[in-house]
Every structure is written in structure tokens, then in C-alpha cells.
Amino acid sequence: MRITTNMIMRNYQNNLYSTMGGLDTSRKQVETGQRITSAYEDPSSAARAAVLDRRYARNTDYLNNVESSKSWLEEQESVIYQISNIADKISKDYSVRAVTDTAGSTGRDTYAEQLKNLQNTMVQFLNTKYGDSFILGGNVGTDTAPFELTEDGKLLYRGVDVDDPANAGVLEQLSNETSYVDIGFGLSFDDDDKIISSTALNTSLPGINALGYGKTDDGTSKNLIVLAGRMAELLKADEFDSEEYGKLWDQFQEGTDQLKDTLTELGTKTQMLDTTKTRLENEAVSIQEQYSAEIGIEPAEAITNYSWAMYAYTSALKIGTSIIGPSLLDFIS
Predict the structure, then answer these.
(1) Given strand 160-161, what is the order of strands in its sheet?
(2) What is the Cα 69 distance to its own chain's centre?
(3) Residue 121 in contact with residue 138, Cβ under 8 Å?
(4) The pLDDT of residue 230
(5) Distance separating alpha carbons of residues 138 and 212, to the nearest angstrom
(6) Which of 134, 132, 88, 90 is closest to 111 using CA atoms?
(7) Partners of 160 in the beta sheet?
(8) CB neighbours (10 Å) of residue 14?
(9) Residue 11: per-residue pLDDT
(10) What pLDDT digit, counting tens, does each position of 283-293 carry?
(11) Which one, of 114, 135, 115, 116, lies nearest residue 126 by Cα?
(12) Are 51 and 240 contacting, i.e. CB atoms less than 8 angstroms apart?
């Protein structure tokens, strides 16, 4: 068979293009760290890698949710801790004995003013914002502070008097508000399309749950803010009712214990988030290892492949100079 120059050139060009393709493939392997860059190169591995890619994306979302939820809960915990410190101070410094022993009416007036200041400070803490949201305002985003202490000593939560028995139903509903975050617990819904609480994290903390609302059977307020105000009123009275004051102070102790329980619950949630974060980070590493096993390539192997491809391409170019003979143009100066 007669081999023409055109046949040699076509064969050379085809081989050169193939060599360039191999060089480009090896270059992409070095740049991306992946054995394949298109699904057609290995369909089964590409399909498994796509599943792992979706798992990794979900895991990243969970981690972001954990981080933001932890910051939110830590801010709630900080506020409750500050209020708890104030409540402890009131419990320690404003007992019946403390305000009656050699205090007199002038001394009780001083106690009353200090107690009103502490009451206002607690309300200010209750209206703390995190970003654009009030952290103790339930699950409703609003520009209005959730708590308001009126001139006549009433405490309003989202416009509702926390002490009025007529508001019991509304307050119960407000206290049960939730705001769930999916952190990888297998978010599920019940038959009524409501989130199953064990499958998500509830980050909502209505402030009335921590400070109390409603009244006891004998008509004593359960709310710490209201109780502090009533105690201050008794201290300012012309005749000090130590028995009534003692009843308010005892109820205040119960509220303080409830506040500490809330603080413990928040701490437990924060610890759970730390554990969840560690689990998700470990899972992320595992997914990356599986992904690499499916379509990844060792850096040393990728660089070796690229070096050989570059050597082949350079050799092909050198061979081309010996195949392509001189033409008339080469002799025209």
C-alpha cells in the first residue's frame, strides 16, 4: 500500500489531538483533585458521587443551623442569667427580716426605690434584641418590644396583661409558641402537619415562661416583675404589712427557682448543640472521604499523570518537526 504524505499528516494530527486531550485531562485532575470531571467517564461513580454531594450540602446546612441556633440560645442564656442574678439579689437583700430590722419608714422607702430600679432593669433585659429579633418575644418578628411595664405597675407581654385571669387562654397560647430549626434529627411531621418536637430544635423562649404569668389560688401573682413591683408598693405604704410582704417574697422565691430551671434547660440545649456539631463535623469528614474514594485521585498520581502527558505532548511536537518537510515558503526570504 502506498503511504502518502497527506496520510502521514492526518495520522499525526489525530495522534497529536489525542495527546493534547490526555494532557488536558491530566491537567484538570491536578487542578480539581478528581479522577473524572464528566459523568460519561464513569457513570456509576458519578452517580454515587452526586448522592454524596447532596448529603454534604445538607450536612453543611445543618452545621450552619447549629451555629446560628447556638448563638441564639447563648444570648437567651446570657439574658436569663443576668435576670437570675437580679432575682437572687432581691431574694437575699429584700427578705422580710432585711426590710423590717431597724429599717423604719425612711429605710423602707430606700428599699422600695432600689427595688423599683431592679424591676425596671429586669424589664430592660427582657427586651434584649439579637440582630433584628427580640430573643424573649416568642416566634413573632416585630419592631415592638415584647414587654412593657405600665405606670400603674402592670406588666404587658405583647400587649396582654400577664396578671389578668381573663387573659389566661391567650397567655397559655403565647407561652406555647415554638420556632423549630432542622439540625439533622430527621425532621418529621405528625398527621396534623405539625412538627414532631423530638425531630427538631425549638429555639423559641417566650419570656413569660421564664418569669411566670397568671396568679396562684390565693390571688398572688406568679410573675417576678409584678411581684417586685408589689413588694415595692408595700414598702412605700404608711403601715408596712409584713405578712403580705412575706407571702409575696415566698412566691418570689418560687419564681426565682423557676428562672434557674429555665437557665438549666438552656444550658442543656447548648450542650446538646455542641455534641450535634461534633457529630456533624465528623460526618462531613466521612462524606468527603467517601467522595474522594469514588471520584478523587491522589495528588502524587495526578501530578505523575500530568508529567507523562506533558512529556508525550512535547515529544509529539518534536516528531512533528521531522515529519513536516520544508516547503517553497521556507526558501523565500
Answers:
(1) 147-149, 155-157, 160-161
(2) 3
(3) no
(4) 94
(5) 14
(6) 90
(7) 157
(8) 10
(9) 76
(10) 999 998 887 87
(11) 135
(12) no
Task: Provide the residue type at 24 as one letter.
Answer: D
Task: State the alpha helices, DSSP H only, in 129-241.
Answer: 168-175, 207-211, 224-236
CB 158 within 8 A of CB 151: no
The answer to whether the beta carbons of residues 204 and 158 sit under 8 Å apart is no
Output the nine-digit C-alpha cell for 69. 441556633
Residue type, 127: N
Question: Model's pTM, two decimal places?
Answer: 0.79
Looking at per-residue pLDDT, the higher value among 8 and 150 belongs to 150
Specify whether the CB–CB gap between 189 and 181 falls below 8 A: no
**Average pLDDT, rounded, for the chain:** 85
Q: Which residues contact 327 (CB under 8 A, 6 or more apart)?
A: none
- DSSP state, residue 327: -
Q: Which residues of 37-57 are buried (b: 16+ CB within 10 A; e: fewer)?
A: eeeeeeeebbebbeebeebbe
Q: Around Cβ 251, how many Cβ atoms within 10 Å?
A: 23
Alpha-carbon span 225 to 156, nearest angstrom = 10
Q: How far apart are the first and last CA of the chain?
A: 38
DSSP 333: -
- Distance of CA 122 to CAs 79, 84, 154, 216, 254, Å? 9, 9, 14, 22, 17
133 has pLDDT over 80: yes
